[in-house]
Structures are given as C-alpha cells and as structure tokens.
Specification:
This protein is an alpha+beta fold. Helix content is 32%, strand content 15%.
C-alpha cells in the first residue's frame, strides 16, 4: 500500500485498516502468526510481532457464533 499511495503513509495505513476491519473481521476467520526478530529479542519487554496471517473464509454452516453484549 505504501507504494500504491506513493509514500503517503497516512493513506496507506487507512487503506490497510479498512481492509482488516471491513473485510477480514467480518468475512474471514483471522489467525496471526507471531514471531520474534533477533534485533528486538533481548532488548524488548515483549519482542513478539505479527509475521504473517492466515485468513480462510468463515463457514457459517459448521460454526456457531455468539454475540456477546455488555449488560
């Protein structure tokens, strides 16, 4: 996205957020792969970062989804 918007970081971040919140969150079962890098492993309190995603479409026929509401 950074290249698509010719270096405009704000537009790139907005487009990525839109994709995750509007597409992935509503239509896919999102899994994150976490890992560390040697650069941050010993100096950071929590060195884990997202290194990849797996996002299959949700099969509504086999899963039960519950909506939790705050009282």
């Amino acid at each position: 996205m950074f290249r698509k918007y010719e270096g405009n970081e704000a537009k790139a971040v907005t487009d990525v957020r839109k994709k995750y919140f509007d597409d992935f969150a509503l239509t896919k079962d999102l899994y994150l792969f976490l890992g560390t890098s040697q650069l941050h492993h010993y100096v950071s309190h929590n060195p884990f970062m997202i290194i990849g995603t797996f996002h299959p479409k949700i099969d509504f026929t086999h899963k039960k989804f519950y909506i939790y509401k705050n009282p």
